[in-house]
Amino acid sequence: MQIIYEENFINSFNAIWDYISLDSKKQANNFKSNIKKVIEDMPYKCRKSIYFEDDNIRDLIFKGYTVVYKVDKAQKTIIIIGIKKYQNEL
After folding, report:
1. Residue 43 has pLDDT above 80, yes or no
2. What's the CATH number for 2-85?
C-alpha cells in the first residue's frame, strides 16, 4: 500500500521533531525512523479511531502520541491524517 502524508501530519510531526531535538537530535531522529517503521507496518492492526465514526480510520498509539490514519482499500493507500499527544478528544 502507498502511504500518503497529509500536510497536517507533516507540520505537526515537524514541530514534535523540533521539540525532541532541543534535547537530542539523535533521539529525534530515532523517533522519526521508529515511527516511520511502525506506520509502514500497520493497516488494520490498530484500533478503530475514537475520534471518527468510520471503521477505516484508525489510531496508532506511539510513545504517547496518537497517529490517526485512514485505510483506503479501493485506492490501496494509507492516508496519514495527523499526529498529536494522546487525548480523549481531537
Report:
1. no
2. 3.30.2310.20
